[in-house]
Amino acid sequence: MKKVFHLKKCGTCQKILQRYDLGGWEIREIKSKPLSAQELEQMCELAGSYEALFSKRSTQIRARNIETQTLSEDEFRDLLLDHYSFLKRPVFITGDKIFIGNDKKSIAALDEFFGIE
Prior knowledge:
Arsenate reductase family protein; Arsenate_reductase-like; Thioredoxin-like_sf; 5 helices
């Protein structure tokens, strides 16, 4: 099972998706087809926490006046299920591995996984 979760209108996501050969991957746009509770649970198991999946740069944080420092894991989960913009993107799942977001460390790990130098 190889899946990518992304936003179609996110330029950074699109740039990252174009970087790799994703033939045979399920590519899922999360705005038009949101995450299910089961999918989020699977991501959490691989990531180690819901907080690891949570984008603290989401515009919804300010709009909803959310204090991210005080959120519990259950609250992170509920927010991730409530609105697509709370998911750090893109998310690549490759069986037993997960790559979350677009920071340099995650991209370097993806490059290594895909054999890009």
